[in-house]
Amino acid sequence: MKKTGGEIIWECLKREGVKHIFGYPGGAILPAYDALCKYPEIHHVLVRHEQGAAHMADGYARAGGGVGVAIATSGPGATNLVTGIATAMMDSSPIVCITGQVGSKLIGYDAFQETDITGITLPITKHNYLITRAEDLGPAMREAFWLAKSGRPGPVLIDVTKDAQQASCEFDWDEAEPGHRNCCLAASSAAPQYSDALELINHAKRPVILAGHGILLSGAMHEVRAFAERAQVPVAMTLLGIGSFPASHPLNLGMMGMHGEAWVNTAIQEADLLLALGMRFDDRVTGNLKTYAPMAKKIHIEIDQAEVNKNVKIDVALIGDLRQVLGDLLPRVHAGNREPWLSRIQELKGDSAVRDIQNLPDDGHLYAAHVVNDLWRETGGNAVVVTDVGQHQMWEAQYYKHDQPRTLITSGGLGTMGFALPAAIGAKFARPDAEVWVVAGDGGFQMTMAELATIVQERLDIKVAIINNGYLGMVRQWQEFFYERRYKATPLYSPDFVKLAAAFDLPGAAVRQRAEVVPTIRKAREHRGTYVINFCVEQEDSVFPMVPAGADLHAMIRRPSPLVETAQDL
Amino acid sequence: MTLVVQVENKPGVLNRVASLFRRRGFNIESLTVGHTEKPGVSRMTIVVDTDEAGALRIEANLYKLVHVQRVENVTSTPSVFRDLAMIKVAATPETRAEIMQLTHVFRARIVDVNSESLVIETTGAEDKIDGLVEILRGYGILEMARTGRVAMTRGPRPEASANASGQDDSLEDESVSYSV
After folding, report:
1. How far is B42 from chain A (nearest CA, A)?
2. Residue A232 appears among annotated catalytic residues
3. Which domains does chain B have, with CATH numbers?
């Protein structure tokens, strides 16, 4: 079957099961866009900035479990994808990005809108391709999808010259099947040390499971739960691990690390065994490595060999797919009774009474934690919540209890502000029946708020909660704690978000009192379509507890009790 | 640490490998690349200043590159290490004979003779070349080019299994192999 390069792109996407793609046309990708006319089954979402396209593809992948696809033109179109690609790389999100490139004869001559996007994205993709011949497109497309999903998932970029899109060649789907690759597979040829791991697990007195994103990527939620219940091991989660274990489960501890609950970090520091499942001991999780979990043996179950012994010295590493490894271990794990350890953890929880912010009387201040907690109650914990980056992100992680996998979508590794709104659009396409909420700060929201236009054009139903404190809140918090409150460049002017929404023909409301929170959330949920709520919250509230960067994990800054006096009180 | 890396000979593969070292904060001391016995496969010998843990990190990360087929850390495997150097030395009629004699001692070769200079070619382990360079320095080294280390483990080895790590190549054939 003879096809142009442009047609091959869509033919491959169609056969990969892609129904939605996110993109922005331009000169060097026009032949491909023209060919899209022949593929009405593929829905193209016109974004307002290519960064949004990459985040949408990312959100699509994270919410639905498939591969997200973004498409852009050469030069600035391609470079605008970069932040989104790096975000996907750090969080192991499978996306495929297709970029146009100037004609192959012009490469290297600084042609209009030429940029070396394969060079630029080399360290932030699993792999990338520069395709100059139509014949090479099919195999590259198929391999790109395979690579994006295989092993530890991640982004793959295909840069296609304009002439390769225009040229015709024979295309055969079966012949384009990728050959065997041994990359992305475990480098270790050693037999899994199951017996060593079992020995440690079965004899541990104070074990803690560290549940990471790998559980979601591997689809090992059931195995993790069965394992935890059988061995009676409490489960602490990384930010991206939230949803991998039900928050309402009695063995759930909550989020660990810099803004983890005090009892979680203390439990890790007191543990005699850490069972790290699909997580990578990020510095935000460990704090000072020298004093991290000093009494604990460490078992690391991980698909990426390069993560083992990277930050934390591991006693037993099991390299492989988490679901499979846990499945192998499960029948050989002794049913545990770890009552003393679980009681100790209960005791630690009692130490954190001020954290129950919901029970605090309404003192006239609107706290973001209240907003998030009310949102959780009102949505029954069933919404897909897509956050931006900053204080609101941590409050979401602390106060919205996620029982289901893939219901918290957030930029963890790269910490990309501006992620929430576009990622939510991608999530909504992946799961059209899900209730999707954006929780974003006033800073991050303004980075990509142009995508409201995309929402309107696509007639999407996404609820937007802006946690507006008038500051770049997390940076302000660091200035408060570590720079003697010199709030340089953190006070932030924002437009009237309700009027802004109105400009997009979207309804909205501002909330300033606690009593207004629930009624407004209800109003938004009853509205069929997108609704924007501007929650004007306490300006100088901080996220507690906090482990300062590089400090010992148990050395947490705790919330002053009663709640911190604020500028308005003084 | 000396790593031998077999890669698919694809455009940009050198860049991908080198970029990985840079990205992960490792400094390459030398890197040689050339063809192998297999068509389409290139072989890199990379010398990097790091410890055992660092080498393991590099190895694991190299395996994540699509075009990398095999990585072997040969640092502590009995291996032949060779470097090739061309050294242009100032040579007057008075010093020429002396230099040629030294060259002979080092089993190096003279590949160019001129009224004012000599070009000496030598291969060997780095320390041998360093020794020759030291000796020649007194005569005035005008130019020098060194290839950097290439390495090969001693003895026959089993057909490269793509996923084997360096340590898996046992030293069973050690006894039949001698240094030259």
Report:
1. 17
2. no
3. 2-77 (3.30.70.260), 80-146 (3.30.70.1150)
Instruction: State both tokens at A289.
Output: 């490595």
Which residue intervals of A16-98 are DSSP H helices? 30-36, 50-64, 76-80, 82-90
The token duo for A240 is 């991206």
Annotated catalytic residue A112: yes
Query: In this structure, are residues A354 and A526 in contact, taking their beta carbons and an 8 Å threshold?
Result: no
Domain boundaries, chain A: 2-170, 194-350, 357-536
Flag if B165 and A119 touch (Cβ within 8 Å): no
pLDDT exceeds 60 at position A170: yes
The answer to whether residue A310 is catalytic is no
* Closest-CA distance of chain B to residue A35, Å: 29
Q: Chain A residues with CB inside 8 Å of B65's CB?
A: 127, 183
CA distance readout (Å), A364 to A323, A442, A553, A569, B87: 48, 21, 34, 11, 82
This complex has an ipTM of 0.89
Contact A176, A146 (CB under 8 A): no
Asked if A90 is an active-site residue, the reply is: no
Report percent pLDDT > 90 for chain A.
Answer: 89
pLDDT tens figures, B52-96: 999 999 999 999 999 999 999 999 999 999 999 999 999 999 999
Architecture per CATH, domain A357-536, reads as 3-Layer(aba) Sandwich (3.40)
Query: Contact A127/B66, CB-based, under 8 Å?
Result: yes
Predicted TM-score (pTM) of this structure: 0.93
CATH of domain A194-350: 3.40.50.1220
A2-170 placed in CATH 3.40.50.720: no
B71: nearest CA partner in chain A:
A187
Residue B127's contacts (CB-CB under 8 Å, 6 or more residues apart) are none
